Every structure is written in C-alpha cells, then in structure tokens.
Amino acid sequence: MSSTLHPHSEGSRAAAGGLTLFAAVMMLIAGFVDIFRGIMAIVHDNVFVSTPDYVFKFSLAGWGWIHLFLGIAALMVGVGLFRVSLWARILGVAVASLLLIANFLSIPYYPLWSIVAIALCALVIWGLCVVQHEDVQGS
C-alpha cells in the first residue's frame, strides 16, 4: 500500500480545508489590522513617517481611507472564506492582492508594518491558490 495520498482522499480534502481555514483567519487578522491602521491615519496618529517627496503621495487621511475600506472588504471576504466556496477564494485572492499593493505603496509611511502586512497577504494568497477546487468540494 502506498503512503501517498490519492488526490481526492480524505487527507487531501482535510489539508485543503485546513489551508482555506488558515487563509480565512489570516484574512480576518489582516482586515482588523488594516481597519485600525486606517483609523490611525485618518486621525493623523504620530506613528506615521512624514514623506514629502514620495511618488505616490496622498494625504495621510487619504491612505487611511484606502486602508479602512480594504480592511472592511478583507473582513467580509474572511468571513465568506469560512464557507469554503470558490467565490470567496477568488475574492480573497483579489482583496489580499489589493491589500498587498496598498501596503507596498505605503511603505514610506509605516515601513515595518507594511512589510509584515505584505508577507501576511502573500501567505493568504498562497493558502487560497494552492488548494484545488475539487479538493475543497470533494469528489
């Protein structure tokens, strides 16, 4: 008997569900943190760095609103990911990609957290893309 899992075995489906659950939890965390980051920027908290010559210059409040809306979207999609549906996985990749881009563009304003958030979003994208649709739904 081979020790390799059949692509549609119970172990394969459990691993697929586990990765989707991991991505859902990470998406919720990223959403909450981005909401807090957005609120901090909107009220002009002192944790942000002043970057007068930055190419993608928005007001700090403008970045705050972007992060606030993306955080809310991440929360909604994160909750949808608990249903392990294809539409939630597709939206999850899209929202995580937008969060990744927004955090990349805001590196000069809050460098350390932006890099951590980029890594977090990359893990979410990986967790949602590595799972085959058939593995999640069963055979």
TrEMBL record:
All copies of domain DUF7144, residue ranges: 20-132
Membrane-spanning intervals of the chain: 21-43, 63-82, 87-106, 112-131
Superkingdom assignment: Bacteria
Keywords assigned: Membrane, Transmembrane, Transmembrane helix
Keyword Transmembrane: yes
This protein's record includes keyword Transmembrane: yes
Protein name (database record): DUF7144 domain-containing protein
The organism of origin for this protein: Streptomyces aureoversilis
